[in-house]
Amino acid sequence: MCGIAGVYAFNNEGKKKINFIEQSINALHLRGPDAYGIYKDDELALAHARLAIIDTSSAANQPFVHESGNFTIVFNGEIFNYKQLREELIHKGVQFKSESDTEVLLKLFIAEGSSCLNKLNGFFSFAIFNHSNKELFFARDRYGIKPFLYAMQEDFFCFASELKALLKFEIPKRINKAALLQYFHLNYLAGNHSILEDVHKLPAGHFAVLKNQEFKIQCYYQIEQSAPLSAKSLNFEESCKKLHFLLDDAVKLRMIADVPLGAFLSGGIDSSIVTALAAKHTNQLNTFSIGFKDEPMFDETAYAKLVAKKCNTNHTVFSLTNNDLYANLHDMLNYIDEPFADSSALNVFILSQQTRKKVTVALSGDGADEMFAGYNKHAAAYAVLNNQYQVNNLKHISPIFSLLPQSRNSKFGNLVRQFDKLTSGAKLNDAERYWRWAGFYKENQLFGLFNPGFIGTQDIDGYQNSKTSLLSAFNTNQSQSMNQVLLTDMKMVLAGDMLTKVDSMSMANSLEVRVPFLDYRMVDFAFSLPDNFKITANNRKLILKETFKSYLPDEIFHRSKKGFEVPLLKWFKTDLKSLIVDDLLSEKLIIEQQIFNYSAIQHLLKTLFSANPGDAVAKVWALIVFQNWYKKYYL
């Protein structure tokens, strides 16, 4: 796991940007504190900041140059099946000078070109320069676990693992207004949007070639909505056996490391399964969880301890107060270089910070909810799709919900909020229902948040086009299914929110996080399964529970799914109130910016501080994150 950056000059003016490569890679020092390397010539610079995981010797440092001198690679990520690929190349006469997966990747590419991507089991973003034909090749893993940002300019092309490194090349800072609309709806950026017009993200499952100032992108992988397995192929019991084999092998592959390794253990089903499987392959597995002293409603450490005891792991609990959370808030915000308003990022930041004190690599359970229908919204979607009588009954009393207090900070208020969202969404078509449940605004409210002179018709069209693309799984001739919902989750929520959060917050603490559920064999298998293997009227993640029920304590399977809401509302009313009212959302700054409609901001703040805040907490948090970014990176 590392940070990469590079610049390719097209002319003499562009060559001036090569001098900024040191500043660019230095901006990524937390991603790779163990070694730095730069390759430079008259028109190209490639740089690498290394977090040493596999072959920690200097022989594996990057940029890695092929012995012929014809190819140079910078690579962020891990190839977990590199030993198998290495043996295949050795049988073909290829020789190696290191034990690294970097060298295997480079030599596999030299041998097979872009087709090598289909053989890689891992997560990655990388660039390879062919010195003979002056061609740059780029690729990103299948699901977008590792980031790759780039900017094509008139005089040069540049790329990096993070926006803060890309900005060192002095690219224009023009806000992408369509992306800004999307951000405030979702609280994150989905798809290939960046907050800046000139910056783009290489799509997951794609590679690109830059030659003669032409940048061409091509897809090499996408999740197929496969025909569901039938009794003629694999029945439920046989599917459980295959699932067990695939996930166990995925976990085992991801335990390859030359540094200390552990696992996140929240006490939920997904991380518990990963922990149980990992514990089979090592004598003493280190596991880590965080507890919340001031928020017992969200504390899951008792369940984590049950799993740790059953799996005989060396378990550590980091028990935090709200003051501990607040003490890390500004460090977390200052690391973010693109607006991202999932407040649970703070928890991941602290968990990564504490875990890094003991290990360099951690396994996580990310991805399972999106593939196997683990969220509350999936139960709601299933109920609507199957016309369950409870939903029809709730529709009749839906006006009542809008009159009751709604808040994420109490059980009753949150229940009312969920019922209101369920009944309002049930009246919409499939795509619009998904979008409504994924976000925080109705569209007229979203557009009204902005100064009319700032957002134009073209920006709204761009927002709508992006929305249509993200919801493309619903635009088929097939009858509606849960797999369409889950496929959209993979494309939008997992890539834009969950994976971005884990990558950013773990890298802020020089920790590598690996995600066994996103082994491509697992994903392809999961999307070949029929809906009823995953979710029924009374059960979510059915096949996961059935497959691994013998591994875990019964209590893990008979409990409601919990998240953790950072106590934002408490902070908004106390520690953060002055920052909000007198600075970030002050009338002075809002008018100077000419981005937002100040009357809409006032209404939002009035709702926030009322007895019925609803989703105002999340909406205001998105504003705070954006304003913090704006002042640090844009002004």
Please explain how this structure is put together.
- By secondary structure, the protein is of the alpha+beta class.
- The protein has three domains: 218 residues, Glutamine Phosphoribosylpyrophosphate, subunit 1, domain 1 (4-Layer Sandwich); 189 residues, Rossmann fold (3-Layer(aba) Sandwich); 69 residues, no CATH class.
- The chain is 44% helix and 15% strand.
- The chain has 28 helices and 17 strands.
- The strands form three sheets. Strands 2-3-1-9-8-10 form a six-stranded antiparallel beta sheet. Strands 4-5-6-7-11-12 form a six-stranded antiparallel beta sheet, with helices on one face.
- A hairpin with a 4-residue loop joins strand 6 and strand 7.
- The longest helix is centred in the C-terminal third of the chain and has 26 residues.
- The mean pLDDT is 92.
- Helix/strand structural class: alpha+beta
Span from first to last CA? 31 Å
Name the poorly predicted regions: none
Tally of alpha and pi helices: 28
Strand % is 5-15%
The top level CATH class name of the largest domain: Alpha Beta
Largest sheet: 6 strands, antiparallel
Q: How many β-strands, per DSSP?
A: 17
Write down the CATH topology of the largest domain. Glutamine Phosphoribosylpyrophosphate, subunit 1, domain 1
Principal-axes geometry comes out as: globular
Radius of gyration: 24 Å
Order of strands in the sheet with the most strands?
A: 2-3-1-9-8-10
The CATH superfamily title of the largest domain: Aminohydrolase, N-terminal nucleophile (Ntn) domain
Mean pLDDT: 92
